[in-house]
Amino acid sequence: MTPRSARTITFDLDDTLIRNAFSRWVIPEIAENLANGRQKTDVARSLHMRHRRALERGDAVTAYDWQVHTDALAEESGLAAGTVDVAAVVRRHAVPDKVRLLHDKTIPVLRELRDGGWRVAILTNGFRVYQEPVLRATGLWEEVDEVFTTDDLGWAKPDRRAFAAAFGGASTTVHVGDRIDHDIQGARRAAATSVLMRRDAPFVGRTAGLDADQLAVMRAYLVKSAAAQRAAVADDVAAELLPDAVVADIVDLPPILDELGEEATR
Ligand SMILES: [Mg+2]
After folding, report:
1. Is residue 62's pLDDT more than 70?
2. What count of other Cβ atoms lies within 10 Å of the Cβ of residue 255?
3. How far is the CA of 240 from the centre of ligand 1 (A)?
4. pLDDT for res 5
5. Which domain holds residue 76?
6. Same domain, yes or no, for 145 and 215?
């Protein structure tokens, strides 16, 4: 029997396991508190822009520091930094009708993996103060072995050091996520098996057996997804970032992990 720590699977959080409350609830509330005579929608757009620009220049650590963006906009509005405590706003909206699991069987599947000997961890570029309330509200907190956040680590995906910290020396390593740059490119740089999990996946299964036509569809999908995510990768690079497997729902994952078997050990 291999020790539990020999096999580690990490999951991205936002848009992989959960839908958070940022766009619908948190950003609008921050914008309302910072408007000070400006249009709320303009302030909200500026917040999103600051996040996106940091993502596009590959600075994920700054991108997910919502307090920094909020304080900068507060000053633009003639308000003091600290006018809005982003963590407090997130906590207020981390309730079950505003944050939710994306897949109905998430908790049974995570239990199945852990029962099967996998160490299950969350590896998120979000900060702990924003992610922990959401993990608790969705019931995930009790269902994983560890949670790694950017502010804990000092590195963000796709930096291989973020993956190395989360994998902790495991010999079999798998990462599951929705972003082409952070999750798929990151997992590949970290020499982990990469699984793209997205509802709109063009097919489900391992990519090793795809024929030329399917590969072309997959590459076009990767380019389109990377653009929609404003990923910090060029189109020709995105087309080459083929994950080892693709799933649309978390229930697809355990059979594919079995199939990947030895391939997951590299
Ligand atoms: Mg994500």
Report:
1. yes
2. 12
3. 20
4. 65
5. 22-93
6. yes
Regarding whether 160 and 46 lie in a shared domain, the answer is no
Residues 6+ apart with CB under 8 A from 118: 4, 7, 8, 9, 257
Same domain, 79 and 136: no
What is the band of 13 on the pLDDT scale with cuts at 50, 70, 90? very high
Q: What is the pLDDT of residue 56?
A: 86
Q: Is 228 exposed, middle or buried (0-12, 13-18, 19+ CB in 10 A)?
A: exposed
Domain C-terminal end among 32, 67, 93: 93
Q: pTM score, two decimals?
A: 0.94
Are 116 and 240 part of one and the same domain?
A: yes
227 and 245 housed in the same domain = yes
CATH classification at residue 123: 3.40.50.1000
Provide the number of structural domains found in the chain: 2
- Ligand 1 centroid from CA 17, angstroms: 8
Report the separation in Å between the CA atom of 29 and the middle of ligand 1, taken as the mean of its atom positions. 22
Amino acid at 237: V
CA–centroid distance for 191 within its chain = 18
> How would DSSP label each residue in 192-224?
-EEEEE-TT-S--EESTT--HHHHHHHHHHHHH
User: How confident is the model at residue 261, as a pLDDT?
Assistant: 78
pLDDT number for residue 2? 44
* 1 C-alpha to ligand 1 centroid (Å): 33
